[in-house]
Design a protein that fits this description.
The structure holds two protein chains of two kinds.
Chain A (H helix, E strand, L loop, with lengths): L1 E5 L3 H9 L8 E5 L2 H11 L3 E5 L7 H11 L4 E6 L4 H10 L3 E4 L4 H12 L2
Helix pairs in contact in A: 2-3
Chain B lengths: L5 H8 L1 H68 L4 H23 L1 E4 L5 E4 L5 H26 L15 H57 L6 H45 L3 E5 L5 E5 L1 H6 L10 H8 L2 H15 L5 H6 L6 E6 L5 E15 L2 E11 L1 H27 L4 H21 L2 H6 L4 H24 L3 H19 L8 H36 L3 H8 L1 H20 L3 E5 L1 H8 L3 H19 L3 H6 L6 E8 L6 E8 L6 H10 L11 H6 L22 H11 L3 E7 L3 E9 L3
Parallel strand pairs in B: 8-9
Antiparallel strand pairs in B: 1-2, 3-4, 3-7, 5-6, 6-7, 9-10, 10-12, 11-12
Helix pairs in contact in B: 1-2, 2-3, 2-5, 2-6, 3-4, 4-5, 5-6, 11-16, 12-14, 12-16, 14-15, 14-20, 15-16, 18-19, 18-20, 20-24
Classes of the chains: A alpha/beta, B alpha+beta.
């Protein structure tokens, strides 16, 4: 399965990548802002996208909108450190399937990805 | 006319007709009648079962309300003793007393009662002799309790409440509490016998209905059994089966009905009890956010509203939450009801786990609370039909967490102060405490409300007051730096920053002084801590001093003001040189210093601290710069004595071999500040004098060492205004700068 990690912080991208050891994701791509995320999504058609909220150029919420407009079945996990839950509610409202709070742990990433893929 | 024997003949000829007329028809009639009758009895029985359960449950509430009354009075007593607000307990007491009164009266006279689930239920007046006797007994006990409860409510009604508590007399309350507590036990005993008796009566009534019902079912069964008759012998088995099946069905349905009604009433009683006593606000809401009929009683306390069933939770929250938070909450509830979204993901982003709400206070203003909501979906056939909501008042928890954080911070601060003062000699510390107290008093006096008011919003008058405060804080900071009391140094620096910010504002109002008052209070609290810790340290120090076997002369040397000032200045030079990267040596003529410092040690110390800090910040160049202009890399500061003047003044000179005063910078600043006419022909001494003007500074960077443009005006205020002396500045730019300070001899 294919995963697209969207985050402007290298540390965060690495942290998520390293948490994937015991998951089904064998192919991983990364994008550093919302605009690139949308381009990558078109080209690469990932099964799941992890999406940061606060990023330069285009923020995560806008990217969620654009990706879902392209493919309403896209599976998006929003990863954010934002303490106010309003943003999290907003992300889910816009169609993200899951929410993960930073700082992340490997277990949290695995659980969140399992949850998002189970039906 | 037909032959009267026609019928007999006909029967003889047609036996089926005879059977039909004389046997089947009556038997069928009996069967139908008994089935209808049995059904009627079944209905009655169901009503009786429900009524019985309700009545018993309502009688059971007498105990619960009695306990609540007793508990509330005890809580009120405690609140009054602790001087906290008893409002909630008074309210609970009132509600419990009202309900108990209603309940007992309903049994006395027969009236409608609102059951815990909100259903109105008609209670019949008690007629049974035994039950009546118990009820009389309860009436007597209740009158006693009610009198106390009413008195407590009356002397503490909502109108008499205020935030400080309620004016009860503790003695009267204590009497009421004891009395009610005793009587409530008796009431509970009676209530128990009462509800047992009611249960017996209900059981009797049920039995009275069950006997005829069973008989009728039996008759119906037998009638049906008889129906097949002789002629339908081949159908007998079938019919018998049918009959027994019917009987079995009837029996089964009856059993089912009984277990159902029993299970239902047990479940209902349990739900009621839970809803009545659970310490959590529980409710069900629909997709529009409307609260269902069932909710826990605690919910009315948490949301501070009665009659919640049928009201919109969103409507209630709209008035309690901020606009943004309310919008989020609305979105969130929409998500909860959207079955296409995964519940797990939604529960994770619950925005209301600890939300701050503001309830309007009955006496005006707001009550600030924190509520914690949690949600669960109730799904039927893939549709979210309701959402279960639990809400708790988490204010105490959050306040405790805050208190814990504050106390941790306070502890850290105390430790900082402690580490700061262990290396400071006790008498130096004493001098510092005196100085801080003095400066805080000055600040306090300057900030007095009437002064601010009389300044009447005149910006300049307020600005002057701020300048005065600034000088005090600055002096305090200098002294703290001297003793390396970093906690005070930092606090004073922050205080200065606040003052600078205010001074930079174009318009000042009295309200701006609030921050200053707060900062002042913070410093005073630090001083309190310092004094407390100093007290503790005295006990620790004495044995050490004794063990140290200090000679008298060294003890005397430590206590000499001049020696102390010298040591302090050396330390200041070392610290500032390190922080500012300027290598400096300081030489002090002890005798000269002793001469001027003997009578006014604090003043000399303050002045020398400011001069040293100013030199380090403004005048002395970093070593590379010094080397480049041909000076030795280490700068020199010195304090020497001056010959006595003709006027009998003692003098000392403070000298540094730094760049001295930057005349151009001072001139520009002075012109900008309107101290001298721009472009005019001014003697260097006139320009130099400008540095003594309040708020004057040429340092471009602000740091804890200097550069706020305070300091020189402090020196002038102290030497000239306070001590009645004089100051002279001698300066050769690029070479050196000298401050000559003259003081009158002590009276």
């Amino acid at each position: 399965m294919k995963l697209l990690i969207v985050d402007d912080s290298l540390i965060m991208r690495r942290a998520i990548e390293r948490s994937l050891a015991r998951t089904r994701f064998k192919e991983v791509r990364t994008a550093t802002n919302g605009r690139l995320a949308v381009e990558m999504f078109d080209r690469y058609q990932p099964d799941v996208v992890t999406m940061d909220i606060t990023m330069p150029d285009m923020d995560g919420l806008t990217a969620v909108d654009l990706i879902l407009k392209r493919n309403p079945k896209a599976v998006i996990l929003v990863v954010s450190a934002l303490a106010d839950k309003a943003t999290a509610v907003e992300a889910i409202k816009r169609g993200a399937q899951g929410f993960l709070l930073k700082p992340i742990t490997a277990e949290a990433v695995q659980t969140a990805l399992d949850d998002i893929l189970s039906d | 006319m037909k032959n009267p024997l026609f019928l007999i003949t006909a029967i003889r000829r047609r036996p089926l007709l005879a059977w039909t007329l004389f046997f089947y028809v009556p038997v069928i009639l009996v069967a139908v009648a008994s089935i209808i009758g049995a059904q009627r009895y079944t209905e009655k029985l169901n009503v009786e079962l429900a009524n019985g359960q309700h009545t018993v449950a309502i009688a059971g509430r007498i105990t619960a309300f009695g306990e609540q009354i007793s508990k509330s009075i005890l809580l009120i007593e405690k609140s009054v003793h602790d001087k906290t607000n008893a409002g909630k307990s008074v309210y609970e007491l009132q509600v419990a007393a009202d309900r108990l009164d209603q309940t007992i009266n309903a049994f006395n006279d027969g009236s409608e009662i609102v059951a815990p689930d909100g259903v109105r239920f008609m209670v019949d007046s008690v007629t049974d002799e035994k039950a009546l006797a118990i009820l009389q007994e309860m009436n007597v006990i209740w009158v006693g309790i009610k009198t106390r409860a009413d008195a407590v409510v009356l002397t503490s009604g909502p109108k008499k409440q205020n935030s400080e508590g309620i004016p009860f007399t503790e003695g009267a309350l204590s009497e009421a509490a004891t009395f009610v507590s005793n009587q409530q036990t008796r009431l509970s005993e009676q209530a128990l016998s009462f509800s047992r008796r009611l249960e017996e009566l209900a059981n009797d009534r049920v039995k009275a209905l069950e006997t005829p019902r069973t008989t009728l079912i039996g008759v119906a069964a037998i009638s049906i059994l008889l129906l097949p008759g002789v002629f339908f012998i081949n159908r007998v088995r079938h019919a018998r089966n049918a009959a027994s099946r019917l009987a079995a069905e009837l029996g089964a349905s009856q059993a089912k009905l009984e277990t159902q009604s029993q299970a239902l009433s047990i479940a209902k009683a349990e739900t009621d009890r839970i809803m009545e006593t659970v310490q959590e606000g529980l409710m069900l809401i629909d997709a529009q956010g409307v609260i269902g009929d069932y909710h826990s009683r605690e919910l009315t306390f948490i949301l501070r509203q009665e009659e919640l069933a049928g009201r919109s939770l969103l409507g209630i929250l709209e008035r309690l939450l901020s606009e943004k938070m309310f919008k989020t909450t609305k979105d969130y509830i929409d998500l909860l009801f959207d079955a296409n979204r995964k519940e797990k993901a939604i529960l994770k982003v619950n925005p209301l786990t600890d939300i701050e709400v503001n309830f309007p206070h009955p006496a005006g203003g707001f009550i600030n609370r924190y509520l914690g909501f949690s949600f669960r979906r109730i799904v039927e056939n893939g549709v979210v039909i309701r959402v279960f909501v639990a809400v708790r008042d988490v204010t105490t928890q959050i306040e405790l967490e805050k208190k814990l954080r504050d106390s941790e911070q306070h502890k850290d601060r105390q430790l900082d102060i402690l580490l700061g003062i262990v290396h400071v000699a006790p008498d130096e510390l004493e001098a510092f405490v005196t100085l801080v107290e003095r400066e805080l008093d000055t600040i306090n006096d300057t900030l007095r409300a009437e002064h601010i008011v009389t300044s009447g919003g005149q910006g300049e008058a307020l600005r002057e007051r701020l300048q005065t405060v600034f000088r005090s804080v600055h002096n305090l900071k200098g002294n703290a730096a001297l003793l390396k009391l970093t906690t005070f140094q930092k606090a004073a620096h922050l205080f200065e920053s606040k003052l600078s910010e205010l001074l930079d504002r174009p318009v000042l109002t009295g309200d701006d002084f609030l921050a200053v008052v707060v900062a002042q209070a913070g410093l005073r609290a630090d001083l309190g801590d310092l004094m407390e810790l100093r007290g503790k340290l005295v006990g620790l120090r004495q044995p050490v001093a004794a063990a140290g076997n200090l000679s008298d002369s060294s003890a005397a040397a430590i206590s000499s003001p001049a020696t102390q000032i010298t040591a302090g200045l050396q330390q200041l030079v070392a610290d500032a040189a390190r922080d500012l990267d300027k290598v400096t040596t300081l030489t002090i003529d002890d005798y000269a210093l002793h001469t001027v410092a003997a009578d006014r040690p604090a003043l000399i110390r303050d002045v020398l601290i400011q001069l040293t800090r100013n030199s380090l910040a403004h005048s002395i160049e970093p070593s590379p710069v010094r080397l480049a202009v041909g000076k030795p890399p280490a700068a020199t500061l010195s304090v020497r004595g001056l010959p006595r003047t003709e006027d009998g003044l003692f003098g000392i000179v403070f000298r540094d071999d730094g760049a001295g005063l930057d005349m151009n910078a001072i001139r520009q600043r002075a012109e900008a500040a309107g101290l001298i006419t721009p472009g005019g022909d001014h003697a260097p001494a006139d320009i130099a004098r400008c540095i003594f003007a309040p708020g004057f500074s040429t340092a471009t960077e602000v740091n804890t060492h200097a550069g706020r443009g305070m300091g020189m005006d402090i020196i002038k205020a102290k030497v000239v205004d306070e001590a009645g002396g004089a100051i002279e500045v001698r300066c050769t730019p690029g070479q050196f700068c000298e401050f000559h300070l003259y003081f009158p001899a002590a009276a």
